[in-house]
Automatic annotation (TrEMBL):
This is AtzE family amidohydrolase. Residues 25-441 form the Amidase domain. Pfam families: Amidase. The keyword Hydrolase applies. One of its GO terms (molecular function) is hydrolase activity. The lineage of its organism: Bacteria, Pseudomonadati, Pseudomonadota, Alphaproteobacteria, Hyphomicrobiales.
Amino acid sequence: MTSKPETTAAGIASAVAARKMSALDATETALARIKQHDGILNSFTDVTADRARAKARAIDADIAAGKEVGPLAGVPFAVKNLFDVADLPTRAGSKINRDLPPARRDAALIERMEAAGAVLVGALNMGEYAYDFTGENVHDGPSRNPHDTTRMTGGSSGGSGSAVGGALVPIALGSDTNGSIRVPSSFCGIFGLKPTYGRLSRARSFPFVASLDHLGPFARSATDLALAYDVMQGPDPEDSACTTRGLEPTLPLIANPVSDLRIAIAGGYFQKNVFPEAVEAVSRVARALGATQVVDVPEAARARAAAYVITTTEGASLHLDRLRKRPNDFDPAVRDRLIAGAMVPAPLVDRAQKFRRWYRAQLADIFKSVDVLLAPATPCTAPKLGQVNFNLDGVELPVRANIGIHTQPISFIGLPVVAVPVPLEPLPIGVQIIAAPWREDIALRVAYALEKMGVAAAPSPRGI
């Protein structure tokens, strides 16, 4: 059996199943690449090498015995460290959580990935308690952008973005409350899927905002993204939001033509507060798809404001005991926002929730006549690490608060989105492919078509 330098999940799984490469070879290749490059990227907080090798050997033994192996057989993957990983404390990017006892069982999505044959190689750096858009963790240090290590990965799934963007692993899992999958996808030049709220189980993952939290995959191709997403689907009684939908496989569908789809550009709010590179990326995607219609999304700015209110108040409620007992062990920026959230008047929260219901209905009306909306994933390419402000049309805006300006109005109502990477020079940037609830298949079809056209692509890492 000889090793082959496969880099995609689909390629690795195919080679392992065909006995052209062993699962152990694929695992050792990933572990070697992590050892070589993670000192620079700082993607990982934990590397589970012994566990990974044991899993890979078991897969190879099954293949040798003629047993069937799953569609991700031998594929290395890693997870944001808010996922429970058996025998590790679930850090959630914090100092405080390191004092927790080790998790006794893996998160539901890890179990589903491993049931499909994937091999967990570690846990990934992230913004503290997922309240972050930069990828800069004060306890573990910043994850670094694989295309320019002086720049941000985006957050809060920063380690997931850098690990996949740096080709340390072909697939990583992250979470997205206000943009934490789509922002790192944009900055690190990879594909990311924020599914419909309630589509993938959040069981045994550390929460941030229960009514906004989503889990999902990152990958270097649309096919790999669909492959990972499909094996994680299915209801789970342990997550009350994930109990209504059965399996709806997308991988056989993504190669379908997109000429029948009604694709529009999100206008108004989504064309404001953007740098030229974001405008260019959306324009390239729209031209490739033949999209000329511009649809205004009503009150998107207010949706972002309401998302902030719900985020900070729900987050504060979750962390009140920690804020009282260990305030000095928080990242000060996170602590101060949570304290502010604890003081938001209840009537304001009620107004935000009522507005969310109205806003959801407005978007439902739009999706009666449109299948897909295109919008920037971030207003710019990756800022410098430590950068506090950026200048937009002569106005100084805080970086941390405005990176998610175009993602928050979408996750606010749980719509499915694929972020596709547009490989501009010198840095990539992402575009959101937004679909109606439960139509991940449509967003993935568009992503796949853009990849085949050469418009969307994950560039090779240039910073390592």
